[in-house]
Amino acid sequence: MSVPQQMQCIEIAAPGGPEVLKLASRAVPVPGPGELLIEVAWAGVNRPDALQRAGAYKAPPSASDLPGLECSGIVAAVGPEVTGWQVGDAVCALLPGGGYAEYATCPAVHALPIPHGVSLRDAACLPETCFTVWSTVVMRGGLKAGERFLVHGGSSGIGTTAIQIATALGARVWATAGSAEKCAACDALGATAINYREVDFVEVLRAEGGANLVLDMVGGSYIARNIKAMADEARMVFIAFLESPKAELNFAQIMLRRLTITGATLRPQSDAAKAEIARQLQAEVWPMVEAGKLKVVHDSTYPLAEAAAAHARMETNAHIGKIVLKVR
Asked: Over the stretch 42-76, which tens digit does the pLDDT of each residue have?
């Protein structure tokens, strides 16, 4: 495959709002040892991209400063020491950064084959959410069949993925969302939706015996409410703090009820940790995708040059499911 020297990409001109995302030209990156160069077809848009754009989420020192944490495309080149991949292979991948571009590099062990029957567009929407959900809900949260699972932000990319994976595992799922349309989307995926503007999720879950696992991306006032909604010996995993990372808590409740509170972010984890998540995804989650138990919920598509509009759409919080950039 012929690889050009220059590519189109989206740069962050300065920390700020969506308008700071600018189309630019850069040299095509060269894959290092153990890395793939991917000719990007589609790139997923995620909340961490907006945080990076705003100056609140720095890229790791070894990563590209370009936004974009997931993509799909074709392997354009393989670096030294890479096994299992060849030029021309269709691939989707979790990226350390750089996805808003015509070419991107990533560790080969963070790439996955496209699930059978899945389009390149939908495949670009899988890595960030599946890596996050599987590692927090299953690997860290220990969700089991028959347990009661509460996920906030149920209509987001993370939420729609979490609902489907938890349902496929045999859990009972409740999901909060802020409109009738979003609640209907959660219900259609197998959850019992709770419109948080109209109903107190604490009362709903306590009437059911409490949540065994809570996946929270809100924080702030939700932290104490989550604890009230949890069953004894339950777990809570944080993946973001859209409201605030701070709260006043009665830790006696955590002791007396034997609660476990933990959290994780994906990007700072080691390459080895992400490789293990990828291995488990291919073994456990890709069969769910191929069986139709996990489908991408697609909100909207924008061309690469309109990345600012994609970010503006995400920050309205009106979207349901994933937003994706068409690179080619």
From this structure: 999 999 999 999 999 888 888 999 999 999 999 99
User: For residue 312, what pLDDT band results from cuts at 50, 70 and 90?
Assistant: very high
Residue 1, pLDDT above cutoff 80? no
Tell me the two tokens of residue 226. Answer: 């989550």
* Long-range interactions of 248-257: CB distance < 8 A, separation 24+: 248/224, 249/223, 249/224, 250/224, 253/227, 254/227, 257/230, 257/232, 257/233
Question: Given the structure tokens 């996990």, which residue do they identify?
Answer: 294
The Cα 75–Cα 180 span in angstroms is 42
* Helix and strand counts by DSSP (H, E) for the chain: 11, 15
CB atoms under 10 Å from CB of 172, counted, come to 18
Rounded to whole angstroms, the Cα distance separating 178 from 168 reads 24
Neighbouring CB atoms inside 10 A of 262's CB total 11
Count CB neighbours of 84 within 10 A: 10
